[in-house]
Design brief:
It is a single chain. With 252 residues, this protein is an alpha+beta fold. The radius of gyration is 19 Å and the shape is globular.
């Protein structure tokens, strides 16, 4: 078993593993590997010349400390339940600490993964809530913005201890969602049939029904700060690391 960062020549095997683990489309894989992938932000387990497990991370900051948002942790079906995922995670934590990252964040998909990551030392650190509503009769004044403007406005509206995500993070997100700004709110969202999926609504959540009317959609689901739904988990990698107060922009 070897654990290391991949070479560019490993990309086809990494894509194959990702697709086997998550079932995402080729378009989604193109989006990730075109905008967000770097071999320096990926670790993989190689067994007998085959990539058995892999993970990726995005660079983020919180309270001016560099952190890693770990993403798409996957083990190939043929290599599961042999300890490779735990070995990969533990190696990645050591690697990140050596690079100067203060902590690692991730968003588990379900209770089973939450328990697995808890076994590696992660603890719940932030919560969110989901606002579900129908369109109102009055549209909210709003306009589309690019990712640079979204990043600038997002810093203003982040709750205390919020995680900053910019650069390739928003380049990746921009291929999947549209950014909007309005009176006192900021939104990253995409339509799904007659429903708007709001990946993050910051600021005045009372504008949600008007947002739907402005976009011509009947219903919406918006992820907003606060509430009591556990969301992200955090592992400190240095003694000075402090858990984030808000992390809501996950790449579902």
């Amino acid at each position: 078993m070897k654990i290391d960062c991949p070479t560019p020549a490993s990309v086809p095997a990494l894509r194959q593993l990702w697709k086997a683990a998550f079932g995402d489309t080729e378009d989604f894989l193109d989006c990730f590997f075109d905008t967000a992938f770097s071999p320096h932000r990926c670790r993989c387990v190689t067994v007998d010349g085959e990539i058995a497990a892999a993970l990726y991370w995005f660079d983020v900051t919180c309270r001016e400390q560099p952190m890693a948002y770990i993403y798409a942790v996957a083990t190939a079906p043929a290599w599961r339940e042999q300890g490779y995922c735990r070995a990969l995670m533990e190696d990645t934590h050591r690697h990140l600490a050596a690079l100067g990252y203060a902590g690692a964040l991730l968003v588990p998909d379900g209770n089973a993964l939450s328990r697995m990551y808890a076994g590696l030392g992660y603890k719940p650190c932030t919560t969110v809530s989901e606002l579900v509503c129908a369109a109102s009769e009055d549209p909210a004044p709003m306009h589309r913005i690019d990712r640079e403007e979204y990043a600038r406005l997002r810093r203003r509206l982040l709750p205390p201890g919020g995680v900053i995500q910019e650069g390739e993070n928003l380049a990746f997100l921009e291929r999947q969602a549209t950014f909007y700004a309005g009176l006192g709110f900021l939104l990253a969202a995409f339509p799904e049939d007659d429903t708007l999926v709001g990946l993050e609504l910051l600021g005045n959540a009372a504008e949600a029904p008007g947002i739907l009317m402005a976009l011509g959609l009947a219903y919406g689901r918006f992820r907003i700060p606060g509430g009591d739904e556990p969301f992200a988990m955090f592992l400190p990698l240095s003694p000075e690391a402090e858990a984030p107060g808000y992390f809501g922009l996950a790449f579902d």
